Amino acid sequence: MQEGCLFCCHEKFEIIGENDLSYAIGDKYPVTELHTLILSKKHYETVFDLPPEELISIYELAKFCRNEILRKDCSVKGFNYSSNSGEIAGQKIQHVHFHLIPRREGDIEPPAAVQQNENT
Fold first, then answer.
1. Which residues are catalytic?
2. Which of 35, 48, 61, 88 fits a disulfide with 30 by CB distance 3.0 to 4.6 angstroms?
3. 40 has which bridge partners?
4. For 16-64, what is each residue's pLDDT tens digit?
5. Does some domain include residue 15?
6. What is the CATH number of the domain that holds 51?
7. pTM for the full predicted model
């Protein structure tokens, strides 16, 4: 537990799913309805700091949350699943967390794709 870390005090959140190593909560500022955060119970700053068992735990919980979202809302047709790493990349809280963002047709503009040269 990291002193002063918002996400280390997971007892104060409404937990919507958990396993031994990770937990899931609704995002306070959702991009779309049912936007979910999946977090490690232990303090790690970024995804690159996670031991393999922690990463697997988060992934397994993300799959559970995905299935729950699909069960609750049949208008969901896809997901964005990502983790920002570092302040410059948009990470606001320095405790590893993954965003599971349900996508519905016409909800918001899709993220810009990286253009690649045909020769690469």
1. 97
2. 35
3. 22
4. 999 999 999 999 999 999 999 999 999 999 999 999 999 999 999 999 9
5. yes
6. 3.30.428.10
7. 0.87
